[in-house]
Specification:
Distance between the termini: 36 Å
Number of domains: 2
CATH topology of the largest domain: inorganic pyrophosphatase (n-terminal core)
Shape: globular
Number of helices: 12
Number of strands: 11
Strand order of the largest sheet: 6-7-8-9-11-10
């Protein structure tokens, strides 16, 4: 049996098992990752809407605020903080979490304890994810590294429940797919991406307005943080790699939060001649590094060097125990070295 066929069959079996677990459960908790993006929130909220149509009692949990460009998502006001969950539930569903530890800041003892409490409140745990580094940490693991977004797995799950796709679910799934494909401009776009879009359009998706809100409009705080980041822009000697930084002081002076820098790193990537870009931001939990690249250049391998992960063209990591300057310099050196290695391997 061809490898691709075997993987597809394994995924179908896993999705059938997830559907069975959901049908049996009366209460469901959907866990999404910290520093949320369109995929984790869109996929999680789409699944919540689907399960509510089945009569389930269901909540989405996330530690952080909803980014300003995603406040249009149906159900975003229902998201709970992990600390608000105190009653047991039948099933815990992880969505878009490459590792179960992505739900909280595991560098914090109190948050580690909070996560264990969240895990133990559930009778069973399943997941839907699309990261190749996922170790398979649940009872059922529906993981497809070829999927453009976790939303693709939610879309494939709907007819197995079965739940009919409606406008609000379509809005959530589109926001997810839009985010993780870079508005269909990254090399993770495939035939499933467009099959899914055809279904979403058939559900009366307001594509133009959502695309503008989620991907084009910028809040004033976001623009201010972009300006500050651009002031720190540095290039490698050949101009193919660049770095930007944002300090805690930058955040304080602009009264900005993590939700205001979600798309800043893309500015570095989108400069002519650039193959790889990084943004280092100073956070309470450490120095968060965001990586972006254009195909065929990969940044997931660099993220892995610093305990992070992600996708070939979009990845991240958090460095602790170092100042912003120290962490940024160390990671930038690794990024430039990786670029040189990949350039040699590509024969360029």
């Amino acid at each position: 049996m061809p490898e691709t066929t075997a993987k597809n069959e394994a995924l179908n079996v896993a999705l059938q098992q997830v559907a069975e677990k959901i049908r049996k459960a009366e209460t469901v908790m959907i866990a999404t990752h910290t520093h949320p993006d369109g995929d984790c929130l869109g996929s999680g909220l789409a699944l919540r809407l689907a399960l509510r149509k089945m009569g389930k009692k269901v909540h989405v949990v996330n530690r952080d605020e909803v980014p300003g460009n995603l406040t249009f998502l149906p159900g975003k006001d229902t998201i709970l903080h992990p600390g608000e969950v105190n009653t047991p539930y039948d099933l815990l569903v992880f969505v878009d979490c490459a590792d179960r530890n992505r739900v909280v800041d595991m560098n914090s003892p109190s948050e580690r304890e909070l996560f264990e409490h969240l895990w133990q409140l559930s009778d069973e745990q399943v997941q839907m994810d699309h990261h190749g580094t996922n170790p398979g940490y649940c009872t059922v693991n529906a993981v497809d590294a070829q999927a453009s977004a976790a939303a693709v797995l939610v879309w494939k799950l709907l007819p197995l429940l079965p739940v009919e796709l409606d406008r609000d679910i379509a809005i959530c799934l589109y926001a997810a797919l839009l985010t993780d494909t870079g508005n269909f401009a990254q090399d993770n776009v495939n035939a499933d991406s467009f099959s899914m879009m055809a279904d979403l359009m058939g559900a009366d998706l307001p594509l133009v307005s959502i695309c503008r809100t989620a991907f084009q409009e910028k809040g004033r705080k976001q623009v201010s943080m972009m300006r500050r980041a651009l002031n720190s822009l540095r290039f490698s000697a050949d101009g193919c790699v660049n770095m930007m930084t944002l300090s805690a002081q930058d955040f304080a002076e602009e009264n900005a939060g993590s939700q205001d820098v979600d798309m800043v790193v893309e500015m570095g990537r989108d400069i002519e001649g650039v193959h790889m870009a990084m943004l280092a931001t100073e956070r309470e939990e450490g120095i968060k590094i965001s990586f972006r690249s254009i195909a065929p250049w990969r940044v997931d391998t660099v993220a892995a060097m610093f305990g992070g992960g992600g996708h070939r063209q979009a990845a991240g990591a958090t460095v602790t125990g170092k100042t912003l300057s120290e962490a940024a310099e160390q990671v930038f050196e690794s990024l430039m070295a990786t670029h040189a290695e990949q350039k040699s391997a590509l024969g360029l």
